[in-house]
Amino acid sequence: MLAYILRRIVQVIPVFIGATLLIYFMVFGMPGDPIAALFGDKQPSPQLLEQLRERYLLDQPFIVQYLNYLGGILRFDFGTTFSGQSVGEVLARTFPVTLRLAVMAIIISFVLSIVIGGASALLKGTVFDHAMLVIALIFIAVPIFVLAFLAQYFLGVQLQWFKPTVGANNDWGDLWLPAIVLGFSIYAASMRLTRSSMIETLGQDWVRTAYSKGLSRGRVIPVHVLRNSLIPMVTDIATNFGILMVGATVTEGIFNVPGVGNTLFQAIIRHETPTVVSFVTVFVIVYVLVNLLVDLLYGLLDPRIRYVK
Amino acid sequence: MSDMKENPVSGANISEPLLKIRGLKVSFGTGKKAREVVHGVDLDVYPGETVAIVGESGSGKSTTATAVIDLLPGTGKVTGGTIELDGVDLVSAGRREMESIRGREIGYVPQDPMSNLNPVWSIGFQVEEAVRANGLATGRKEVRARAIEVLKQAGLADAERRLHQFPHQFSGGMRQRALIGIGLAADPKLLIADEPTSALDVTVQRVILDHLASLTREKGTSVLFITHDLGLAADRADRIVVMNQGEIVESGPSRLILENPQHPYTQRLVAAAPSLASQRIQAVAEERGVEHIEEVASGAPVIEVRDLVKEYRIRQGGFRSVPFRAVDGVSFQIPKGKTLALVGESGSGKSTVAKMVLQLESVTSGELLIEGTDVSQMSQKDVFALRSRMQPVFQDPYGSLDPLRSIGHLIAEPLRVHGVGDEKARQARVFELLEQVSLPRELAWRYPNELSGGQRQRVAIARALALKPSIVVLDEAVSALDVLVQDQILKLLAELQAELGLTYLFITHDLAVVRVAADLVAVMEKGRIVEQGTVDEIFASPQQAYTQRLLEAIPGASVHMAGH
Amino acid sequence: MSSNSAHYVAPIKADVVVDAVRLGEKPSNLWLDAWRDLRVRPLFWISVALVLLVSVAALFPSLFTSFPPSGQGAADLAKSNAGPEPGHPLGFSFQGYDVWSRLVHGAGISLTVGLLATIIGTVIGVVMGALAAFYGGFLDSLLSRVGDIFFTIPYIVAAIVVMTVVPREFRSVLVLAFAIGGFSWASTARIVRAEVLRVKQSDFVMASIALGLSRFKTMVVHVLPNAMAPVIVVATIGLGQAIVAEATLSFLGVGLPNVVSWGADISQAQASIRTAPMALFWPSLALTLTVLAFVTLGELVRDAVDPKSRAQR
């Protein structure tokens, strides 16, 4: 098992380097004046320009620039925003809210996908199954910002069940609406995966053997079906995480949640490229870590990986 | 062959059957798509006796057995008849009742040991589940102790350590023992064994079945044994029930069925079952005196192999790799028009030899001469030309034909690749070949998934013959086929060999098939040839211990079958 | 059958025929069967109809509306957020443009970007995945690593970065399509790699090489076609997702400038969501229906070609 963990960690390093290099290249490695690229139509102040030239070592060859950038990352120095704040500070301040939002959304999505996915698998071919399929397809198709607006309008403004925007009061209870929107937008694909994974597991020979031992349904389903379906579902979490982060960006923007995503959202709209790049870098790092964690979890769940013959 | 067993252990009433099945009907599918697959089966199993249901695939034997324990797959359900176990009607039993009957009264041993054990739970966990569910023990310590007993009884040495291991860490034979242990854990009255050893090597099979027989004899368990192998049924069962297409065609004491089968289906089955007493299949043409197979062929051998070696490098984590010799110095010759069988269990290296001969794997060292020419001296162009003289037929009929191409396209492909003839000529040749393998012309426009396994193998043979090769390498070509179909294909192969003067390299794990299909045989074990010679010699007086073990392990060795 | 030494023989009905050839009425293979399954499902035809409708609107917008969606003289600020009128069935946008016209013309951008991005992503994915799987060894490790790197960056994020960085005058349809497709190929590559590895093990691959076909030709002629089924499913669903990506980027203001886009319309309409919700509703509906059509089509095809679900029917 230890060998597996170490191997995974070692494999992650080139991927991390490759990803950050790629981002950096997209922004700074293209032909043309990177400063102009960074600012688009806007005119930066002279101090900022000077800061940027210094920071990004724009007179140096590309590889030196990149290594400097990488060094910064490893020192947790992610640069500064347009308003002069350190990105690290902004992150520290906004992270807790986003974490709350993400956790709520993940729980909602998880519960929905297991319950509906599992029920659909067991009730395969029935009206329930088909109805759930149609609903899932709708949620897969509706873009998250449309969903957000619809929810904001109907649930927030018309029915007034939840607060339509969040703002400064952003404790757990205030985040319901954005969490629901985020959770529902993710659950659909997961639910399809849970369903097909369970259907496949239900047809496996060992399930029949389990029944032949005299076990009841109440034991066979959780122990021999769900437990095995967990493996593909766990790998699914990692993929979902990327969508979750993008979704959080949009949702926080629309519902005015003062989290990490919102900062990124504002930066994108205002074309503040350096900030966008910094945040995307952090984002990629988190994604890499989550993937690593999921890989390790996968090793724990599947003894075939843990105990290689 | 053992006679009627008494039952001193359970003291059960021997004159009443333990299991009584009357008019059993099983259907699959719902509504308009419903189809009946078992059409009214009557079956009795008496206490302490072993009854074997024998049939080919699709005969309904497995369906009947799984209907008894109410574990029919998918949409299967019992649509008629009764099943009584010790007077209790199983068909009308509720879910809870069936749950308590399973395990306690009826045990089940499935076929494939790998897929029948849950890979994420330890063996101990899965055995303990059975112990707890059937009320054999309570409390962690007792349950664990009982589980160890179960595994020990099943013949697993070192049971305590094995408890914590996972299925993938066991060998196939060990997994099957664990499954047998689980099936017998609660000392059920009836054990249903569904082809319990067909996934295993023949020597392992013998040991496990011997062990199973002694266990059931000891406990007085009745056994309902499902198998496609008549010889196996003869060895292990008191009575045989023969099924075909959902119906019982014949049943009675084993010896009687085999020595004096009455129903035409049974007769054909018995005649086709390869066994030690069989004769080499003679092509029909030969009986008219065309060429007597006993003649020793003269002239240079068509295939000659000297000290052939194949070494792989196995990666061992990190950067190390160890060499592994799959084939370790193999030599043999095949004269023209003859068949050499390369026989061995899994891991013997026989398939690797075939692949080297076919130029699908590189040769590490040694000489390979095809029709006198050393292959290693050949240029790319020559090798390409060589391929038209030497063609394969592989084992898996469901994987050897590209599912997206029509049959005609597939058979014509060798002609296209080697630039033979034009479109019209090729089409004519395709029809010619289809006729040669006794398949209707219409198939040229159809697709592989519309055909049965045997029919696909015939298409594969047609394709192999397209370029008029002199050599055909048959890699387990009949191993995946039912007995009667296998017999048909072997007869076809013999006819083609006589007609076209073909030389066969026949790879198989089944010694009994060797008897009917080959002239020469080489027995392989762990990459080496242990013994070789003519089939008559080897079967009459095997010299090596391994060969003797293989011969003894052939099921049905002791039974004299009709027509042999 | 009541005594266990009885010898029972069933009545002899017919001759024993071994392995008779039993053919269905029509030829059948994976795709023929899938087609027969699909064409009886109403949902299939609804999705196809929607796709066709949107495609026609994209190609020939003048068939649906005569009013221009943007440009000189098209806007009448006096009619800002006004309701439906004769000739203007859905009313006017915040800036006074005809909503229906903008809907129709928006289809073009969505479909063009979606289609191009999907083609780019699928082609790259198939090539990478097939090469990695067929040749194995070092190439496989290398290509898989590269795939991992691209997998790590969600394509919307990468597209945002690209579109933010590229100067306004270079933001063309092609750039946007590459931004989306060039980062979404990794999941297709993984699927292709897995399928090719599976197909590679089949005996017909060995048979093909034993015939004398080169490894490369075997891959192209025999292996790839059999690995394509999941790719087609994913590409169809991916088309829907690419359309969403374009809309999202437009919504965020980093889409294509100076074009009519549903995403941009939604973004503009959000300011007046309380007073004029319909201006938000219509482009959202158009977007949703279009994406829904592709996603549904993809799922239906998946059901039709999946051997496991077919076996149970």
Helix content of chain B: 25-40%
Strand content of chain B: 15-25%
**Computed Rg of chain C:** 27 Å
Sheet/helix structural class of chain C: mainly alpha
Average pLDDT of chain C works out at 85
Determine the number of helices of chain C (DSSP H or I, runs of at least 4 residues). Answer: 11
The most extensive interface, with participating residues per chain, is: B-C, 69 and 40 residues
Helix/strand-derived class of chain B? alpha/beta
Q: Count all strands of chain C and give the number.
A: 1
How would you characterize this protein structure?
- The complex is a heterotrimer of chains A (309), B (564) and C (313).
- Chain A is mainly alpha-helical and 309 residues long.
- Helix content of chain A is 78%, strand content 0%.
- In chain A, helix 5 crosses helix 8 (176-202), helix 7 (144-158) crosses helix 10 and helix 10 (217-255) runs antiparallel to helix 12 (273-301).
- Chain B has helices at residues 61-68, 95-104, 123-133, 140-153, 159-162, 172-184, 202-219, 230-236, 254-259, 264-272, 284-287, 350-357, 380-387, 407-417, 423-436, 453-465, 483-500, 511-517, 535-540, 545-553; strands spanning 19-28, 35-45, 50-54, 77-85, 88-89, 106-109, 190-194, 222-227, 239-244, 247-253, 303-315, 321-334, 339-343, 365-370, 373-374, 390-393, 471-475, 503-508, 520-525, 528-534.
- Chain B is globular, with a radius of gyration of 26 Å.
- Chain C has 313 residues and is mostly helical.
- The longest helix of chain C has 37 residues, at 99-135.
- Chains in contact: A-B, A-C, B-C.
- At the B-C interface, strand 2, strand 10, helix 10, helix 14 and helix 16 of B face strand 1, helix 1, helix 7 and helix 8 of C.
- Strand 10 (247-253) of chain B pairs antiparallel with strand 1 (8-9) of chain C, so a sheet runs across the interface.
